[in-house]
Structure prediction request, 336 residues.
Amino acid sequence: MKIFYFQAEEWEKGYVSEKLKDHSVTFFNNRLEDNTNLQDDEVEIVSVFVNCHIGKEEMDRFPKLKCIVTRSTGYDHVDIAEATKRGVVVSNVPSYGENTVAEFAFALLLAISRRIYDSFKRIKDTGIFSADGLRGFDLKGKTIGIIGTGKIGKHMIRMSKGFDMNIVAYDAFKDEKAAVELGFTYMTLDELLSASDIISVHAPYLPSTHHMINLENVAKIKRGAVLINTARGGLIDTAAIVLALKNGTLAGAGLDVLEEEGYLIDEDALLLSAHPNIESLKTTLENHYLMEHPCVIITPHNAFNSKEAIERIVLTSIEDIAGFVAGSPKNVVMVK
Ligand code: NAI
Prediction:
């Protein structure tokens, strides 16, 4: 089968070619949308990464397309309804180590709670070895609210236990057994927002989870809380984060994902488009406000990016491709 593999790293090319040696694999260093004129009448499988949008227009470029393999857990960048309509199978990597993202979420939290970035920057910028003005706060005894108690959320809960924190959680589909085993309490989203000193988001981005935290319920957040988001930007209305930082509801935020983060990779596309989308422009401006804010740490969607996780991601996506070719697709994503 003819396969197009986008955003391939150099080491990946040899590894994937070897594993899929009976197939014709063409590697691209960049994203599908960076190859604006690319079309192919023979390609049946495309493999993409998380920041590569595949909608109707992209699928139209490959009339024989039968399978999309995304090398990620989240699949909100693929138009699943359109793929299903065309009979195109979409496979993802449902799990590659929940610890990887949870460890990163904790790294963001600790960087904020103990002023790690500010401390490091003082030494780096000034060479002044002084802790004046760099006081943080302990995690022990604080309440952490976990939104989404799936694989990553549960790992966060285990880690939070290790820090002697109180744990509350919200999930649309409760796992009561886990609540007993791991020792946490489910509550409504509003209750969680009011009770938590730290809020960490681990739900998938779906139409039903769009702007779960928004301009209305942001006021429920306990004053001085810290918000961590390593899930998806669209789960939280960016305007709500800006408002909460401005009025002191939030004391800080650690964000690995942003709404409209795709435009931060290519802002020219937004600014120079014939009909710029006003909402996207507004969100991009708000993202810049957050980037400049002294109490916000933003990382470039990097939580998945550990050596061990990448090896597992690539291996599983090769298995996804091999499964599809063998007539038994694996890790198939369904319309919700
Ligand atoms: P999972 O599927 O194991 O858990 C998701 C949890 O969210 C489930 O317990 C589910 O019941 C819950 N949920 C579903 N709808 C909900 C709703 N309306 N309200 C509240 N909870 C709801 O997924 P996993 O592996 O824990 O990953 C979570 C998310 O993390 C992924 O969907 C992905 O978007 C994001 N992620 C981010 C990465 C990064 O590099 N920043 C890397 C990997 C995942």
Notes: The radius of gyration is 21 Å.
